[in-house]
Specification:
The protein has 13 helices and 23 strands. It is of the alpha+beta class and 432 residues long.
Length: 432
Amino acid sequence: MKILVIGKGGREHALIWKLAQSPKVTKLYAAPGNPGMELLAEILPFRVDTPISQEPLLKEEIQRLGEWAVTEKIDMTVVGPDDALAGGIVDHFKNLGLQIFGPTKAAARLESSKAFSKDLMHRIGVPTASFETFDKIDSAVEYISSLKAPIVVKASGLAAGKGAVICKDLQTAEKTIHQMLSGSAFGDAGSEIVIEEFMHGEEVSLFAICDGTDFVTLPPAQDHKAIFDGDKGPNTGGMGAYAPAPALSTRLQKDAEDQIIRPILKEMRELNCPFSGVLYCGLMLTEQGPKVVEFNVRFGDPECQILLPLLKNDLVDLLEASCSGHLKDYELQISNEASVCIVVASGGYPGDFKKGLAISGIAESELDDEVVVFHAGTERKDGDLVTSGGRVLGVTSTNTDLQAAVKNAYKATKKINFDNAYYRKDIAYRAL
């Protein structure tokens, strides 16, 4: 099989890495890819990682890639980033007769429009925080005057995982409302906002591979979004993750499947936009049980980097079962190991940071058989490997013991060097 992976980050590197282990795969392609994928896949120059805010350019790139995929007779395409899904890549490829893993543009609204997602949950009784949506500053400010802090203000559109702000007082909430609805914070993604009650509890991630009707769930994971140890500071795209997360017990997971995933899939079918692909459920474990923080419609990053090493099945088989609607009798096989990923970021991230910094030590860190380093924000410059993003690398380790996996991951991380490299020192602390 010839398989194409869309994206250029750590998530996509992990997908390439896992797909390369399948005996069914004859050739892998990555668009636009990154240097970490070079030994496993052919890198293609299509910029299908273009943000949805530049939709005309994104659609042009999707069309170009579609023509190429037809010519090259690509057997399956796997979509990593949310922007490509929101831009309708699945619809376009299906119209061309190509097999592609991921939700349609209409189904992807579960992520691309938080307003759509929240309204749907409210309508069918899926447990989530109480909320209101706004597109005018005055009415949003008037609404929060009746609330008690903390308050969560979210951009309705796609904001690279940084569109949710926890406001500890009303003054901060008002400032955030002005920044989002004026367009200065997230552009068009913030032209509509969702204001939610703050939910208390522990947050976990549950990933369901869906085929429109049925689904299988991967082990629960826990992401560390805040930039600093102890979950302090501003949110990022994710500074590390581990799985399985013990906070989501077997009973609570069943509750989430029965009260959240099944009703969502049923409602999406009734709306005539059945959901196929990855339903990423961000859950808050409240005193009342699991509640939805938000949905994403693709693998998380860095959760993908820890979950795929635990998957014993051939990934091609799993993705094909999703695409063809044959998950009902699919038997998921998961390793009994634990997995952890440490994200190495550029100093200053998620604010301003330098690019083009020379990277060393990756080969040394991978001398441990239990360690693999996934590239996230890297590129080649004059033949040298340099930084090109805020999140640069994801150092992943697996072991039968979580503590040992964490120890090995940090040992390997210390071998990686570039100017002003930064990483959290407490990944998986809630389970240790």
